[in-house]
Design a protein that fits this description.
Elements lengths: L2 H12 L6 E2 H8 L5 H10 L8 E2 L10 H10 L4 E2 L2 E2 L2
Parallel strand pairs: 1-2
Antiparallel strand pairs: 3-4
Helix pairs in contact: 1-2, 2-3
Length: about 90
């Protein structure tokens, strides 16, 4: 894995149930603050990471995967309404 991928993987593995972050927050915590889109690509291409805990900066869920993401988040006690995480 590249240094970017290693850093993103570390951040994602540290997420706990019920913790929701944005792609930008993952990128910043990994040390690559402008790489939010690359975080999305990483999640699309790598299984085994809690992708459902990562949302857009406006709280929007992953397009095309809203039902699955909503289900996963609700299991963890996160409120979701109209395709967005409720703060």
């Amino acid at each position: 894995m590249t240094p970017f991928e290693t850093a993103v993987a570390r951040v994602l593995k540290e997420l706990r149930p019920g913790e929701v972050v944005t792609y930008g927050e993952v990128a910043a915590e990994a040390g690559f603050p402008s790489a939010h889109r690359a975080v999305g690509r990483f999640l699309r291409n790598n299984e085994g990471y809690p992708w459902w805990r990562v949302v857009a900066s406006n709280g929007r869920l992953v397009p095309g995967h809203e039902a699955e993401q909503t289900s996963q988040l609700k299991i963890e006690g996160v409120q979701v309404r109209d395709g967005r995480v409720v703060a």
